User: Which sequence fits this backbone?
């Protein structure tokens, strides 16, 4: 949002200095924007490479590069920039054609009228603001949808492999701790989250009977289990946003010394993400119960990692991971426990339904009847669940205000199921996590609240929002 709050920049391009000066003088009267000028298309592109430009207005008839040629390049490199062209009547055909093909937002004819120029520029900048806000909303929603899909898939895998309940989440958290300590980029962390949650997704294609065998496996059974790396890779490689993660999934059983599977690659040939997930996955497998053995204690699991540094694992990752285990878990314990939820404007029975749906040790729910009371409690809560009609105002306005002022508070609206369609626009407006519908179903409600906190934690770690 920072960019939007700055004054937007307008770039004027014309090979005739007099025209350029005249335009600049007219537009400089207004304090809402910055104005830059360029004498040619090439100069304009140089400026745009250095700084963001909201709107370009170019003359059409210029030597070397025409206005439309310039705008075509801008459309490719900076699709958000609003493109406008100044033209004489002689070139009208070309320009109209360009507008029809979406190359140009508007055109102005020479000689221009001041009022028309100003209105066109203002409309262009308004268009820029709307599409930038819309784009960031869409990308946020897309990332959230992607992560939710991945989490749902991870849960489906755990259903199949009963004994690994919670395994994917723990592998993700261990992996993220390593990535954060290594100060790896947000993109890397995002791929790592997807990969660690889905590292065993290929098990969907492995026989359930083999997966749940107690005791040692035969050679053939072992080969069957090993197939999950490649199956997982093939499943995820076709999905655009999982392509980088798919490499980690393929390689998570490779070993530093080259004796792993499926490709037998070694050391740096194995992607960093896969070297991280290998340590996290093995450590969690050792410290949680499996069908064929009980969990080991942390100390002996740590020793096992240390014994295998440089053979099975990347020694540097093991050392880092072991050093992190001594520190408080910055991911899972960063949130207050119990978490506090505020229910605004609900009936007494809805309050008790909500309280009964959530384990009291983890969630503290309190209800207030009015927005005025709710405002007094905002500093103390992590989630607000609000109805629409309150004695002192509108719930949607209240949640919208929280979205602007305290976006870290999770916002949920409590509605009747049949109201869902009419209130759909509220999701964007108030940045809602979800609707909660009454009468509340305990299992559904608990899942919704747990997922919302899980989502918020990920969004915070990955800086999605
Ligand atoms: Fe695996």
Assistant:
């Amino acid at each position: 949002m920072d960019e939007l709050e700055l004054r937007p920049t307008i770039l004027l391009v014309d090979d005739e200095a007099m025209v350029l000066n005249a335009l600049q003088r007219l537009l400089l009267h207004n304090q809402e924007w910055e104005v830059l000028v360029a004498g040619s298309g090439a100069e304009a592109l140089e400026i745009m490479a250095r700084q963001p430009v909201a709107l370009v207005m170019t003359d059409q008839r210029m030597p070397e590069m025409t206005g439309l040629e310039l705008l075509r390049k801008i459309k490719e490199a900076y699709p958000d920039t609003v493109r406008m062209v100044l033209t004489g009547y002689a070139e009208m055909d070309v320009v109209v054609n360009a507008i029809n093909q979406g190359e140009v937002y508007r055109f102005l004819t020479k000689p221009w009228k001041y009022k028309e120029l100003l209105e066109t520029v203002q409309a262009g900048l308004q268009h820029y603001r709307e599409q930038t806000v819309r784009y960031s909303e869409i990308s946020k929603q897309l990332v959230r949808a992607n992560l939710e899909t991945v989490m749902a898939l991870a849960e489906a895998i755990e259903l199949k492999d009963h004994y690994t309940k919670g395994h994917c989440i723990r592998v993700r958290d261990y992996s993220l701790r390593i990535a954060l300590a290594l100060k790896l980029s947000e993109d890397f962390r995002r791929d790592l989250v997807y990969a660690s949650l889905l590292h065993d997704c290929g098990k969907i294609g492995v026989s359930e009977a083999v997966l749940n065998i107690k005791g040692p496996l035969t050679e053939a059974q072992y080969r069957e289990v090993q197939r999950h790396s490649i199956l997982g890779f093939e499943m995820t490689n076709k999905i655009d946003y999982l392509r980088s993660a798919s490499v980690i999934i393929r390689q998570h059983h490779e070993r530093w010394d080259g004796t792993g599977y499926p490709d037998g690659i070694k050391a740096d040939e194995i992607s960093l993400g896969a070297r991280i997930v290998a340590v996290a996955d093995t450590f969690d497998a050792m410290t949680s119960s499996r069908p064929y053995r009980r969990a080991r204690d942390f100390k002996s699991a740590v020793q096992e990692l240390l014994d295998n540094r440089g053979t099975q694992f990347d020694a540097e990752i093991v050392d880092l991971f072991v050093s992190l285990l001594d520190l408080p878990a910055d991911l899972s314990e960063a949130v207050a426990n119990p978490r506090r939820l505020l229910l605004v404007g609900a009936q007494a029975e809805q309050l008790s339904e909500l309280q009964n749906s959530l384990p009291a040790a983890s969630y503290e729910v309190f209800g207030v009847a009015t927005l005025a009371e709710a405002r007094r409690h905002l500093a103390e809560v992590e989630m607000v669940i609000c109805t629409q009609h309150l004695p002192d105002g509108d719930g949607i306005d209240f949640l919208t205000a929280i979205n602007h002022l305290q976006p870290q508070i999770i916002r949920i609206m409590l509605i009747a199921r049949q109201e869902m369609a009419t209130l759909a626009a509220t999701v964007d407006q108030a940045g809602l996590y979800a609707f909660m519908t009454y009468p509340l179903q305990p299992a559904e409600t608990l899942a919704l609240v747990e997922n919302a906190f899980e989502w918020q934690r990920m969004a915070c770690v990955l800086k999605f929002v």
